[in-house]
Amino acid sequence: MTSTWKPHEKHGGLSDKDKRELPESVFAFPDKRKEPMTDASHVRNAIARFDQVQGVTDKDRDLAFQNILAAAKHYGVDVAETNWRQLGKLPHTPNPAH
């Protein structure tokens, strides 16, 4: 699956208004507009909260993981996991970066 993520100029904390104005291409889950990734901190948050996202399919998670990988590469965030099923409470890799 190919990533749909594209970098965007907004960084740092995002208000609800900011999130509404962001294009779908900055979200890990673009169709659901969940987990915006506009900087390295948001990418780490998307990784940490991946298993908490509700109302998404495995196909949505496949795309979200590819988007996370693309954003992580852009912002220099190390991702030890090679599959989204490795994210979450159990099992989880011992990656201190997130």
Walk me through what this model shows.
- Residues 1-39 are annotated as: Disordered.
- InterPro entries: DUF6582 (IPR046489).
- It holds the Pfam family DUF6582.
- Residues 1-23 have a biased composition (Basic and acidic residues).
- The protein contains three helices and two strands, in the order H-E-E-H-H.
- With 98 residues, it is mainly α.
- Helix 2 packs antiparallel against helix 3.
- The two termini are 24 Å apart.
Please summarize what this structure is.
By secondary structure, the protein is mainly alpha-helical. The protein contains three helices and two strands.
Features:
two-stranded antiparallel sheet; mainly alpha; 3 helices; DUF6582
Poorly predicted runs are none
Distance N to C terminus: 24 Å
Mean pLDDT: 86
Largest sheet: 2 strands, antiparallel
Rg, rounded, reads 12 Å
| Percent strand | 5-15%
Helix percent band: 25-40%
Secondary-structure element sequence? HEEHH
- Looking at the structure, what is the overall shape? globular
